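Quick one:
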Amino acid sequence: MWNSVQELKSIEQENVSIIVFSPDGSYLATAVNDLSNQKYTVSVWDIFTRKEIIRIPHKDILYSLAFSPDGKYLATTGRSRITHIWQIDSGQESARINHDSFVHKIVFSPVYDGGYLLASSSAQIWKLDSMPEVTSIDYKTKNVKSINNEIICSAVFSPDCKHLATIDEDNTIQIWNIINGKELVSHIAYDMPVKLFFLAQMENI
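Output:
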């Protein structure tokens, strides 16, 4: 099988710990955690030219990257307890969200305008209305719905952005109502790994 695999593109970079494609496949974001030199950097690459178009230094170890659904923004987060949202075209910071603990995972909802951003360890959800105009959101404000206190290992929004499914560190699958933050379903997953997804035309996982 491997003899039929062809390398399409090659990008050389050392100490890469996270890679993620933009939704349309035009860009690749990489996170470098160079622990020996204490350098932590996010780069965005043009897939077709293989050129680095953005390089963003960070102050601490990076744990998660996520592109917005429209591919215009990149969210970065990690041990700094800050989630940054960057504009891809300019490399400028559009928003900064402060947390009270390390953030291990960030997930955008399928819709950006009027959609949501999930940040964990525990799950806080931010409303993304006019995100370029947002400058800072503190986790204690009314803009945040804290769902639970466990570390979220995986999460996915429903296509209509009304529900969120999560798996925590105890292998518990839960479905939440995003509007009021209430738990709708809870189920312990005994076999790992588990990947969550919502069916596009049905509100089931």
